[in-house]
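Notes from hallway chat w/ T.B., transcribed later so I don't forget. T.B. wanted the structure written out for a chain they're using in a teaching module, and asked if we could keep both sequence and structure tokens in one place. Agreed to drop them here.
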Amino acid sequence: MRAAGGTEPPRRARAGSRFDPSTISRWVVASGSREVGTASRIVRAIGAAATIGRVSLLLLVDLDGVVYRGADPVPGVAEVLADRAARGDDIVYVTNNSMHYRADYVTRLGGMGCPVSADRVVSSSRATALHIQRHETGIRRVLAVGASGLERELRDVGLDVVTAGHAATRMHQEGIDGWAAAGAPDAVVTGLDPALTYLRLAAAADCIREGARFIATNRDPVYPTERGLRPGAGALAAALEATTGVTPLSIGKPEPHLFEMAAEAVGRQPAEAIVIGDAIGTDLAGAKAVGARCVLMLTGITTRDEVDALPAERRPDAIAADADELAAALENLAG
């Protein structure tokens, strides 16, 4: 279908095989620490108060179900993390939630007493934006199907972002298809869109059919809320996959990309990390995918019976039912 004025954007070849990112280069962030070794678990000098030669941990910390449950903090976890940061450990917060901008997490986590800065929060939206910036440099214009946090993260890395809401409005008012309404984007990026409409979905599908790269921030099928389970970002991605026949590249857990970007934020490798999470299918599986260790918290969605039912090769390195057990587990893993 032609755009207004009689012109039609050029049609694109359908996207090819799944992108396989190359090994990420390492870099060191000046944060009061100095790298003094290059073994798989980096030894850092972390100040006169620390034990000489102490191994600095890299903690990749999930949010909902670990640091907080809904609006309420999980008792004692912020204090444990503050203690680990004071000892020189690197702490990066990781979440599949694609709706919020990282500065919003800084405000919330800081208010709970967690050690945090904007560069230490890597959501699936942030990781997706960084992935595109660093590994898919041919992408310039993006159709974003999601909340405002996704749009802001994509704009922050210099992408030209068209929202699905804007494209849907043009489709309705001008009688054009989604490809034309979105201005022939190079990629479609999906997250959780609480305001999703049929035309927004149609705009994304039109673009994917014309060859736009299909990238999903995550494939979580459900989104837990205080009013029960709601469709997650993965439900939206699944609908587009069903109607286009194209499988998206997924960035969030349990895929390795989110943990790779989080480790890179502090100049380290994901295999060095200890993942602290509450979900077997995302946190634990994602840790296994990158060769990281995992402390599985029983403060969120997973029960001890579910952990006990896992085969030996799929079990976490430690289990913690509360903040005290988390602190003890980290002490043991640091030894």
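Follow-up for T.B.: The chain is about 35% helix and 20% strand. Might be a good example for the class.
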